[in-house]
């Protein structure tokens, strides 16, 4: 009787776990978008150029890379003694594009309102435009994403 009870309880636990999202990688668009911005934050804080570049849409990334090759201190301008923390997300998704409003808390600088325009790139969300401040300025103003 004990074996049947244990088997029945095990089956119930397995069925409950299978019905949870633990086994699914179908995260929402909002979760995927937030993850990209958190990856950007991690890359800046770790001063990791490759991870930083991976956050950007391919239409922007090649222009970022070109600017970096022309000016190796280019990414250093973002990484220079700065620690980023993006908070207070508001995400609006419209098909394969999205707008994100959040706050950038930058160590040693005042917090700034921040916006990201996100677009799908080969099925993954990527940053297309990044603006900070009030009034807002495009980060790396020399980078103009393809229209």
Numbering strands along the chain, what is their spatial order in the largest sheet?
1-2-3-4-5
For this structure, the CATH topology is Nuclear Transport Factor 2, Chain: A
Overall form: globular
How many runs of DSSP E, i.e. beta strands?
5
The fraction of residues in strands falls at 25-35%
Oligomer: single chain
Secondary-structure element series:
HHHHHEEEEE
How would you sum up this structure in a few lines?
This protein has 147 residues and is α+β, with helices and mostly antiparallel strands. It has 5 helices and 5 strands.
Write a structural description.
The protein has one domain (29-138): Nuclear Transport Factor 2, Chain: A. The protein is of the alpha+beta class and 147 residues long. The radius of gyration is 20 Å and the shape is globular. The protein contains five helices and five strands. The model is unreliable at 7-24 and 141-147 (pLDDT under 50). A five-stranded antiparallel β-sheet has the order 1-2-3-4-5. The longest helix has 18 residues, at 2-19.
